[in-house]
Amino acid sequence: MNRIEFREIDKVKDWQNFVQSFDFYTFLQSWQWGEFQELSGEKIWRFGGYLDNRLLLTCLVIKVKARRGTFLLCPHGPLFKDDKLIKPLTDFLASLADQEKANFIRLSTAMLSTKQNAKKLESLGYRFAPMHVHTETTWLLDVSKDQQTLLAEMRKTARQMIKRAEKEGVEVVKDNSETGIEKFIAMHKKHALEAGYEAFSAKFIKNLFEAFDQNSISLKFANYQGQTEAASVIIFYGKQAVYYLAATDTKHSKFSPSYLLQWQSILEAKSKGCKVYNFWGVSPDDNPKHPIQGVSAFKRGFGGYQLDLLHAYDYPINGKYRLNWLIETLRRIKRKYYFIKPEF
């Protein structure tokens, strides 16, 4: 292969057209996600890999500074037309990491979880990361189907919950206003405390709504008898809608308004011309002890199929990587997460 030239892309259209030319991609490689990172104070690069001035690869790179170490992160990327491009990209990023005093490179790729892909990265010096960054086992729904088919392919419980919520008069309201955002922040924080997970900061959530325009993000609430019981944030990118954030405050045990809220989000995705509704992260299996098994069962109840992306891989730059590996390994054990590695 001839020498690949890597340079930054500064035209939004060129970037978006290339990313959305793939069968699978997520908003984590969108132009807007780069803007979101900049709003959050992170340093980013949008690199393109060119051969004879033809774009063959894109890679959004984020410099992450953490107490455990500094690293370069590529979320759900790189996206490439030929996997032979990974080697020159790695060499290029290793040089950048050295300049930026980063301890390692982390690829949280959109590659499928296969033995071939794992071997490819490991042959280049990458090692299995101790912790994930973004969703790797995801649940997808083909929303190009008609409404009746979608309802028929759900679990009976999900279908009944939707009908019950409609009968009870649950109202689903979209509200991207500042008031709505503040309301969601409060709900999200309260739900995180009750459920025992770490909430996103108010700044994180506000930056999302600044980076993604009104047509690309949707905040909805499910109200019942004058009280808000569920909320969700959906991000639209290309032909995909992603169920990204949620919060619940259920006060009635007989049924959950969350099912109708989810159904209305699916219908919104259809109305925008989306082909895929991405429920985002689910547990890799049906182990009842997995930390997110409960919400995973909820998502799977709407029908669809599982897509397993390759677990994150790290490329160490210097010896300081070992400290990061130890800290993240201990965190993973404490949180009871585990990953299924392709068998060789």
TrEMBL record:
Transferase in keyword set: yes
GO biological process, one term: cell wall organization
Record-level Gene Ontology MF annotations: aminoacyltransferase activity
Superkingdom assignment: Bacteria
Gene3D superfamilies: 3.40.630.30
SUPFAM superfamilies named in the record: Acyl-CoA N-acyltransferases (Nat)
Keyword Chaperone applies: no
Keywords (A to Z) from UniProt: Acyltransferase, Cell shape, Cell wall biogenesis/degradation, Peptidoglycan synthesis, Transferase
Any single Pfam family the record assigns to this protein: FemAB
Record-stated family: Belongs to the FemABX family.
Name of this protein: BioF2-like acetyltransferase domain-containing protein
Biological source species: Candidatus Komeilibacteria bacterium CG10_big_fil_rev_8_21_14_0_10_41_13
